[in-house]
Write a structure and sequence with these properties.
15 helices, 29 strands, EC 6.1.1.15, BirA Bifunctional Protein, domain 2, YbaK protein, globular, five-stranded mixed sheet, nine-stranded mixed sheet
Length: 568
């Protein structure tokens, strides 16, 4: 491609709301342009990179035995209502009506559509297992689109669905997709971790998220540097060291005592007021679950994880009790404690187990209780994990201290089981003619998000540094003086030699100053830059490798072999 003909509007300045490095660089390098909030057009260079990612996805999915197809983006509402997700999915689902008043949704995901299709087409165990996938635009009404392609309202996704006759078959399909994802993200040049995760609105169990490590990531990953354990904060568990549980002082023999704490309604205020470590305090959270009041206890320095709590309580969401509701259960907002309360469910996080000489609310305005011994004073409590893992916690597998990192979710694999096959009637006949529900898995990759995540990880102050496998072009050929016939002739020779050999080459034949061309080359970041300039008469070109900055000269006759070695 000759660059003077390329639609590639580079920018010096980018909009102030472009917070992420990938967003800024994709705008500056002319890869994307915004049409509306969270909605982008892909310009030629952006589309070529996106297509290269799709090629990798297709190769690995096909190698894993999956079959590509394409499903509609417009879904009848009755499918989503049959699965129970029309209301559960919430406001992110883009809904519309046709001229006849019939309700539809733009596809945010395709579990309902694929299950209905397979239900109608596969009836015998002889046709199972099967895994089907598509690469298609998805739509979600994000409340706050941000970070360019990392959180948009319209995005490109690869979604796959497996159908098996047994749980062991699902295990095999899941592992095949897991391995394919490892290959895909490795080939795309991503640094990533596969972490245990929560299934959310998709449903199912045994899920893993594939997280690209990046500071701009909105998810926190908890991982062990010494073993393979890694989990999203929604699923992470750790072993807490509760040094305050030891009966090493006289306070363990003291009974709970009420102390005056005027206006002290938060753990931070209480710590300052009593000059005491927050680890020695118990935080009480009052919530409503299915219409019933629940008091959740956690150590003062830690936070409740709402998703874990929802799972423990068996509800979709919990709401905070109002001040009136707190009064109705016999307590006072800001001074809630478990001692003396009746007609409430008590949930205790494992972080308070064995805690002695603790401070908790006294259920009376401006008062707390001190010298509380959890085992002695709170009775027989069932301890559960409902907290976010905190600093200093150790791995439950090997005991090493856990570490934290930020990540961008680029892929997610789920074992759905029979969640959708039962609600939508997708069954098969086994060897004995008995009807059984198909056992499903689903597997998604945010293809456009992968593009942004790669740039987030691969850039410097000058611009993008493309991994060779997904770079829009492998070689950037620069002619310093396009008015020089000798330089143009040698450039054209190089261009045709490399393109005939199968290399993708962008030839900068623009009438621009050399400095502009070099800066644009660094911004666009293709793996190899070839500069035809002052040594044209000697048939020598300058070579620069973008990823390491290596600069060297080479005779034109050596270029083809060099490129074959470099890119293979």
């Amino acid at each position: 491609m000759r660059q003077q003909r390329l639609l590639n509007p580079t920018l010096r300045d980018v909009p102030g709301d472009a917070e992420a490095a990938s967003h800024r660089l994709m705008l500056r390098a002319g890869l994307i342009r915004q049409l509306s909030s969270g909605i982008y057009s892909y310009l030629p260079l952006g589309l070529k990179a996106l297509q290269h990612i799709q090629t990798i996805v297709r190769e690995e999915m096909d190698r894993a035995g999956a079959q590509e197809m394409l499903m509609p983006a417009l879904h009848p509402a009755e499918l989503w209502k049959a699965s129970g997700r029309w209301d559960v999915y919430g406001p992110e689902l883009m809904r519309l009506e046709d001229r006849h008043g019939r309700e539809f949704a733009l596809g945010a995901t395709h579990e309902e559509v694929i299950t209905t299709l397979v239900k109608d087409e596969i009836h015998s165990y002889k046709k199972l297992p099967v895994t089907l996938y598509q690469i298609q635009t998805k739509y979600r009404d994000e409340r706050r689109p941000r970070f360019g392609l990392l959180r948009g309202r319209e995005f490109l996704m690869k979604d796959a669905y497996s159908f098996d006759r047994s749980k062991s078959g699902l295990d095999a399909s899941y592992q095949a997709m897991y391995d394919a994802y490892v290959n895909i993200f490795t080939r795309c040049g991503l640094q990533f971790r596969a972490v245990e995760a929560d299934s959310g609105a998709i449903g199912g169990t045994d899920t893993h998220e594939f997280m690209a490590l990046a500071e701009v990531g909105e998810d926190t990953i908890v991982h062990c540097p010494a073993c393979q354990y890694a989990a999203n904060m929604e699923k992470a568990v750790g072993r807490i060291s509760n040094e305050l549980a030891s009966p090493s002082d006289v306070a363990t023999t003291l009974q709970p005592t009420k102390i005056h704490t005027p206006g002290v309604t938060s753990i931070k205020q209480l710590s300052q007021f009593l000059h005491m470590d927050t680890k020695q305090m118990i935080k009480s959270l009052a919530v409503l679950a299915d219409g019933k009041p629940v008091i959740v206890l956690v150590r003062g320095d830690l936070e409740i994880n709402e998703i874990k709590l929802n799972h423990v309580l068996g509800v979709q969401e919990v709401t905070m009790l109002s001040e009136a509701d707190i009064t109705a259960i016999g307590s006072v907002a800001g001074f809630i404690g478990p001692i003396g309360l009746t007609n409430v469910t008590l949930i205790a996080d494992t972080s308070i187990q064995g805690l002695r000489n603790a401070v908790i609310g006294a259920n009376e305005a401006d008062y707390h209780l001190q010298h509380v011994d959890v085992s002695r004073d709170l009775g027989d409590i069932t301890y559960v994990d409902v907290r976010n893992v905190g600093l200093g916690e150790s791995c439950i597998h090997c005991g090493h201290e856990l570490a934290f990192a930020k990540g961008i979710e680029v892929g997610h694999v789920f074992k759905l089981g029979t969640t959708y096959s039962e609600s939508l009637g997708a069954t098969f006949s086994d060897e004995n003619g008995l009807s059984e529900p198909m056992i499903m898995g689903c597997y998604g990759i945010g293809v456009s998000r992968v593009l942004a995540a790669v740039i987030e990880q691969h850039h410097d102050e000058k611009g993008i540094i493309w991994p060779a496998a997904i770079a829009p072009y492998s070689v950037h050929l620069l002619t310093v003086q396009v008015g020089d016939e000798a330089q143009m002739a040698l450039s054209e020779e190089i261009y045709h030699t490399l393109t005939r050999a199968g290399f993708s080459v962008l030839w900068d034949d623009r009438e621009e100053r050399p400095g502009v061309k070099f800066n644009d080359a660094d911004l666009l970041g293709f793996p190899l830059r070839l500069t035809v300039g002052k040594k044209t008469s000697e048939r020598i070109v300058e070579c620069k490798e973008r990823h390491n900055g290596d600069l060297y000269e080479m005779n034109v006759e050596q270029l083809l072999a060099h490129c074959q070695s470099l890119f293979n």
